[in-house]
Amino acid sequence: MTDQDIKKKRFWKTDFVNNVRYYSTFHIKDDYLKYYVENLMSYAPEYLVGFPSTILEIAKYGLANGYDFQENTVKAVFPTAETITEETRYHIEKFFKAKLYNQYASSSEGAPFIIECEKGNLHLELQTGVFEVLDENDQPAKSGRLVITSFTTAATPLVRYDIGDSITLEEPDKKCSCGNNNPLVKEILGRIDDFIYSVENGKINLGNVSNTLKDTKGIIRFQAVQDKLEELDLYIVVDKEIYSKHIEEIFIKNWKDRVGNSMKIHLHYVNEIPVEGSGKYRIVRNNIKNLL
Which H or E run contains 126? Predict the structure, then answer.
């Protein structure tokens, strides 16, 4: 975005050839969200693709300020690069009146896709590549790091590429009624190096970190930052009308269930959590990997 764009409250660029509009992820703040919502409503996209944390901010602003997105405009929402929480799914689907379909892909490496079907199950799309799930000893496993051989890269072949993410597969005999007979994925765990380390329990992966929201309401966003082995800082953005002391106690208990009772947990209530330089929002910032 140029200074002129910002002055005119224009936070998007349009590719008229491919009929795609790109919205800036770097200007998502209360002062500007009005313009995002109103432009999306007038542009009326058929599909939304992007960081779920960004789409969530737009959706929550629209809901809080009484905007009524026209029904049957957006056919589907496809999140990228971040873990989906139930809170995120709820607000995005409610505002845009469209289903959110979780997916996994790494477009920069031409990696294969994992796509959520209409029944809510995740499928390995074997037509796009070969997937291997390997444990720490490079042996096939039900849960482990994802190694891919892509069918979609035209310039540089990717053969058994360790992409740095991990997944958990469903039981082989479990089938989906959607008609897609590709293997099922139980959980996308995310980046292998996005973890919290507990002296008591070892590595707490991104999937388990996300599950600390179980049975809570009103937590809009949080980020776990670990700067010390036995201390954890949680930065939390909450909806003050829903969030309560009781929910805080549940949230802390969920964390204690995962990291143990010896780790000190510090809560910091903030108005916003900044995104990375790439525009992505990270749930975990582990700053002690050099100690492990």
Answer: none
SS3 3: helix
Place of tokens 């479990």: 174
How does pLDDT run across 240-275, given as a tens digit for each residue? 899 999 999 999 999 999 999 999 999 999 998 887
Distance CA 223, CA 57 (A): 15
- Residues 253-288 as b/e (b if ≥16 CB within 10 A, e otherwise) read ebbeebbeeebeeeeeeeeebebeeeeebbbbebee
- With contact defined as beta carbons under 8 Å apart, do 69 and 98 qualify? no
Pairing of strands 184-191, 122-124: antiparallel
CB 24 within 8 A of CB 11: yes
pLDDT at 80: 78
61 closest CA partner among 86, 100, 94:
94
Q: What is the mean pLDDT of the chain?
A: 87
| Angle, helices 30-43/52-64, rounded to nearest 10 degrees | 90
- Of the listed ranges 99-108, 121-130, 215-224, the least confidently predicted one is 99-108
d(CA 145, CA 141): 9
**Concatenated DSSP letters of 235-265:** EEEE-TTT--HHHHHHHHHHHHHHH-SSSEE
